[in-house]
Amino acid sequence: MTGLALLHGWGFGPEAWSAWAQAFPERPVVLLNAGYFGPQRLQLQHNPHGWVGIGHSLGFARLLTMDVPWRGLIGLGAFLRFCVAPGQDSGTPPQTLDAMLARLESDPQDVLTRFLRRCGLAGQRPAQPDATGCERLRQDLTLLRGLNLGPQATPPPVLLLHAADDRIAPLALAEEARTLLPGARLRVFITGGHALPQTRSADCLGLTREFLNAAG
Question: 3-85+144-215: which CATH number, 3.40.50.1820, 3.40.50.720, 3.30.230.10, 3.10.20.310?
């Protein structure tokens, strides 16, 4: 059966998918790991029935660029471009990421705590990254600063799930991604912030099942 590969966003770990990990007992499920708080795992074993990728935030952009013949992709709080760019007003000012990069060197815990609060997870205490994890966080902030994937000619079927109150990735970025991914569908929640795998897990799981059923 088609497997599911789940990849979290910046500042998170595989535990962001805790409500998802056991939700599909009939399918192979792999929790990929960007390596901020533990060993990195970004490789998939061969599955004769293929894989559907489910990515949160930067995780979706990462899945889209992986050399995998995806059967489908689902993005939660996803985007193809993150920062404001010439002629593109929506997004995060690059100076915000520059400030995060500067603080990350001296106080990564504070950077992550503030980030989770803006995601809608006030009160959640982040894990403590080791030196390797801090370096990967730094590298991926730099990646986010310049991310601009542009139009995708022949993407697989894509479902984008986004919250109108997302303070990290404005809804305009998801709408832009929909136009750059031919055939993509966008579903918008009024609330949920930037942590949809946790804040709207039941809703997102239901829409994921619908997507999988439609894809066969």
Answer: 3.40.50.1820
